[in-house]
Amino acid sequence: MRIPFVAGNWKMNTTATEAEKLVLEMLDKLDRIEGVEKVLCPPFVSLVAVSMMLQSSSIKLGAQNMYFETKGAYTGEISPLMLSELCEFVILGHSERRGYFGETDEIVNKKVKAALANRLKPILCVGERLAENEAGKTEEVINRQVTAALNGIEPVCDLVIAYEPVWAIGTGKAASGKQAAATIQFIRDAVAKLWNKSIAQDLHILYGGSVTGANIAEFISHPEIDGALVGGASLKAEEFVSIVKKTAEIKKENKVVSSQ
Length: 260
Prior knowledge:
The protein is α/β, with parallel strands linked by helices. It is built from eleven helices and eight strands. The chain has one domain: TIM Barrel (Alpha-Beta Barrel), CATH 3.20.20.70. Helix content is 45%, strand content 14%. Strand 2, helix 2 and strand 3 form a beta-alpha-beta unit. The two termini are 14 Å apart.
């Protein structure tokens, strides 16, 4: 059984002081929740401070992005080498990076390769736009993104994939649990074809897109969905704790039922 996985993507929110306050508000409660992998992804400016706060806890740290070169004349960029001393995870290919900053499938592929080469675990984001979804092109888009992102990469388990339909990110309009589960199963099948079935079965594949404490059960109750990449709700300490707690409880209940 894959261990449930919940990551909070704070995006471009919180000053360094606010980040420390937010971690303090949720640290003890999150640390006590067992049976689920917990990851916080604050802005770059807070990584050092948050890293120190999480040192003696069960909570892992992730970055929100990185460049694919390890060093050089790339003003304003952050390299995987810099992150590897602080983080275990890094979010790559998020739709906001693709949409606002022009990241192509090729760039995402380079970033995934660079992350793995520097002992970072990518949280690879894939997802279709509203027009693509309405045109019935979800599987076509997802297959292209997954295939391109993993091109030339040897099969590894140190990778997380997050299905984030672009039309559901920050809109308050989440996909249905059934639709998300079907797409995530498609992603797992696509990875099995690219690599092998064993690796595909071991990979964590998450749902992201307007996840809240109120709707997390709809997603996490599906065995295909291993957890969530949480945006806005991860900025609210009590709600994020609630999401993690419900994820752990529901997955534990499902495990007991499936073993009977």
